[in-house]
Write the structure tokens for this entry.
Amino acid sequence: MAQSPGVDEPTKEYPAVDESAPPAAAPPADSTPPVDAQPPADAPRGMGAFARVLIFTGVVFALIVAMCLGLRAINVLPGFDNPFSGKTTDRSQPVLLQSMRDLSRYVAADGNFQVIVDLQEDKENVPDFLLNKRTLFVGAGTVEAYVDFGQLSTSALSLDEANKTATIKLPPPQLGQAALDMQRSYVVAEERGLLNRIGDAFSNNPNQQQRVYQSAQQRITEAARSSGLEQRAQENTEKMLQSLFGRLGYTTVTVEFASP
């Protein structure tokens, strides 16, 4: 089959160029590039490389920490400490002795008490969600009942050697101040209004619970007065003195308490 001339034949020579024609004018330097011009291809490639390096570094660090913790858990590295473990620093000062006194009290009885203090501080005509402070506190404390032998006079003791009798006159039992046991006392709940929370954020008052503690001590002391603790202290003191003088050979021991 005959082929047309010039089809599938290699070009034998370039087309003629008219050298007398003027060269095409170059575009001006300040010409605006086309709108659809694409940014360089390597611009986003740099940001992607940095992100990949950052992610790779984080993954390697996490694997190292997990491997160290795992080896510590199976006792492969018994001496390795957790780098994120908590640390407690005690900067307390030495104890300062402020005073010392001699006591001549005979503690005849004590009582353990528990009280629930529900203390609320608010303002009239102000909503509680704005200004309110309510604390629910469980206070546990101890009250001691004692007889002060330091107040005895020379005439408080009368002895009859012939009849082996002894008469002792004592002051009435007294109650000490309630001592809170902080290991058994705790705050159950605490409510604060919005303004209270803002104020606490800008001020630090370490004695804000002092009023709650004082209220608990006062209530426990009042409860001890009506609990019969003083009467029990009187009976225990009388038994102790009768036993003591009985061992000294006195057959009759009378203990008299003054009126409160």
Summary: The first strand starts at residue 105 and ends at 122. Residues 165 and 252 are 5 Å apart (CA to CA). The chain has a mean pLDDT of 77. Residues 105-257 form one domain.
